[in-house]
Amino acid sequence: MKLIVRDASVGYAADKPLQKYVNFSVESGEVCCVLGPNGCGKTTLVRTILGMDPLLAGSITLDGSDVCAWSAAQVADKIAYVAQRQTQPFPYQVKDVVMLGRIGRTNSMSGKPSRRDYNIVENAMADMGIEHLRERPYVDISGGELQMVMFARALAQEPQLLILDEPTAALDYGNAVRVIEKVRDLAEAGYAVIMITHNPDHAFMTGANVALFMRNRNMVFGDAFSVITRENIQDAYGINVKLVEFTHDNQEVMRMCAPEFRGASARKNGGR
User: Fold this and answer.
1) Residues near 216 by beta carbon (within 8 Å), at least 6 away in sequence
2) Which whole number is the average pLDDT over 231-246?
3) Are 163 and 194 in contact (CB under 8 A)?
C-alpha cells in the first residue's frame, strides 16, 4: 500500500490555500510525521485525505486510486482516523467502543456482530494491551488507556492506513512515551501511519519520514535526520534549537531537539 500526495493545495478557498505544492508519500511499514506551526494546514490536510474538505489542486492517490473521488464507505474501508480529542458521554464498555470500528464491515443479515467481528475486536484489544479493560466503562479509564482504546478501535476497522492527529496531546510523559512506542509497533506490524504532531522528537523516536510545513507555505519532505535541522526548525517555528545526538545501549542512534533559551548559561552557572 502506498499513499502519494502530489502538488496538493489544501484549505478553504482556491485563491488562498493554507498550503500548496504539498508533496509526500507513505507506504506500508512506514511512519510519516506531519509537523508545522499552528494554522499551517496540518489538520486540513488530514480532513482532505478523509474526504471531509475538498482538494483545491493536485492529487491524492492510494495505490493509484484517486482518494478524493471515494465515497465515505470507501474511505472507511481503507483509512482509520484517531482524532486528537475524544468525547464519549455514555458509559459504554471498552469492548463496545472498540466494536464501533466494525461498523460497515458487519456481514450478517441482522447487522449484529459476527463471531469474526468479536475475534477481531479481541485481537485489537490484545495488540494494544488493553484486554484487561474490556468490561470497564469507557468514561472511567485514564487518558493513556483511552488513547489505546482509540487505537484498538482503529485497528478493528482493518485499515491499510492509520491517521493519528496529535495522539500524545494532553498525556503525561509516561503515557506519551507508551503511545509513541505503539506507533513504532504498528509500523513494524506493516501499517502505514501518518502522525500529526507538534513535537519534532516524535519523528526521531518513530524512525519516521517528515513532512515539515513552513510558515511561508513551503514544505520539506524526507527522512527525519535530513529534514529536522536547526535551519528548518527556525524557518518553521521561529526558534533556535540545538540537535543532540546519542546512541542507546541497543546501538540505536537517536537525535533530539533542545531549545536554546536566552540566559540559559547564566541560570546554569548561578541561577539554581
Assistant:
1) 235
2) 95
3) yes
